[in-house]
Specification:
Layout: E1 2-7, H1 8-11, H2 16-27, H3 35-45, E2 51-57, E3 60-71, E4 74-77, E5 89-90, H4 95-102, E6 109-115, E7 130-141, H5 147-152, H6 156-173, E8 176-181, H7 187-199, H8 202-206, H9 215-228, E9 233-240, E10 243-252, E11 256-264, H10 273-288, E12 293-295, H11 302-305, E13 310-320, H12 323-332
Parallel strand pairs: 4-6, 11-12
Antiparallel strand pairs: 1-2, 2-3, 3-4, 3-5, 6-13, 7-12, 7-13, 8-9, 9-10, 10-11
Helix pairs in contact: 3-9, 6-10, 7-9
């Protein structure tokens, strides 16, 4: 039957069940591709020009993604900063060959931003030119054993530093305690507390902090409430004595946790509250769902990588309409669309260090 295109904001809710079935079939129900995340992204960050693109074969959806125009025949995946990877529900990349003529105007480029290689299309049969540019190096923790086994496998200096930070925190502030919020009714209050911490730091000074009364706060409260109805959302908060020093937002499916966002009290940075909360987070989630992966979707630096059992690159993929478009691009635009003058791709992941 081919591709069906419709305004995403108006039509996504009607196809959410089909979207989730396709996500389950292709990607095991990846939380970042779940309709409970995509719908709030469209509602809070969509501009109204996004197109829901669904491919059907014999009436059954076998491909779906959301694109928005970048002008002059360029289209890219709808990937606001709050979505660290693109939701591309396409198993066979050859479907893109028929998407070009279905798009309005004379489309010559489709940019799939921030594509996770573990959840990417099968490129082997694609006959169109494709360019790839690096974006970030993400990390994951995956272990079949208990947290204690994982922790013993970490570098000696990391374990030593965490013990030192814990002693310092307890000496200066009192007992460390972890609190978990899973009830949808409590998500708004948890986001408000998160926002108060983040607003007190550099993001507050820049005007980019989450707050209960701004668009980011409403988005995360909406998202966590939707996932929380099925017990798939979690806010973990670390207190040192009576003081709330760090907060972390997570969502999950049956086999994966995703850390959405983290903040900590910068005035007590000497006790490394974000790292103390990370250790407590991994111990908590691996205890309640043994064997589940924990995905960070961050741009891992050397210190962060010490926590990881896996590292993998996230890349941008540009598909071109044909050899003629590829030749013109090589002459006129030698850098990948979206790259800065230095060659680095300036899209940010909006992530903090652990």
């Amino acid at each position: 039957m081919g591709w069906e295109l419709a305004p995403a904001r108006e039509h996504f809710a009607a196809c959410a069940a089909e979207w989730d079935r396709l996500n389950a079939e292709l990607h095991g129900g990846h939380p970042f591709f779940d309709s409970r995340l995509v719908a709030p992204l469209l509602e809070h960050f969509g501009k109204g020009d996004e197109l829901l693109c669904v491919h059907r074969s014999s009436g059954t959806p076998d491909g779906a993604l959301i694109l928005h125009p970048r002008g002059l025949g360029r289209w890219e995946t709808f990937t606001p900063d709050q979505a660290q990877v693109s939701a591309v529900l396409v198993g066979n990349a050859r479907l893109f060959e028929t998407l070009f003529p279905a798009l309005p105007g004379r489309a010559w480029s489709i940019d799939l931003l921030a594509l996770d290689p573990d959840y990417a299309p099968d490129w082997s049969g694609l006959r169109l030119p494709r360019r790839v540019a690096p974006h970030t190096l993400t990390m994951a923790v995956a272990t079949d054993g208990a947290f204690a086994d994982y922790w013993r496998s970490r570098p000696k200096n990391l374990r030593k530093n965490i013990r030192r930070y814990r002693r310092r925190a307890e000496d200066d502030f009192g007992h460390l305690a972890l609190a978990a919020t899973t009830d949808p009714a409590g998500m708004m209050a948890a986001i408000a507390r998160y926002g108060r911490i983040e607003s007190s730091g550099w993001k507050g000074r820049q005007g980019t902090a989450v707050a209960a009364d701004n668009v980011q706060g409403r988005f995360y409260a909406d998202l966590l409430t939707r996932f929380g109805r099925d017990d798939r959302a979690l806010v973990l908060e670390l207190r040192a004595g009576e003081r709330l020093v760090a907060s972390r937002l997570l969502i999950r499916n049956e086999s994966m946790w995703i850390i959405l966002k983290t903040t900590y009290d910068e005035s007590v940075a000497a006790i490394a509250p974000g790292r103390l909360l990370l250790q407590a987070t991994l111990e908590y989630v691996l205890a309640i769902r043994p064997g589940a992966r924990v995905e960070f979707y961050t741009n891992a630096n050397r210190d962060q990588a010490e926590w990881a059992t896996e590292l993998r690159p996230i890349s941008h993929h540009q598909i071109l309409r044909g050899p003629f478009a590829a030749g013109l691009l090589a002459i006129a635009r030698p850098s990948f669309p979206g790259q800065g003058k230095s060659g680095a791709i300036p899209r940010t992941t909006g992530r903090e260090q652990p």
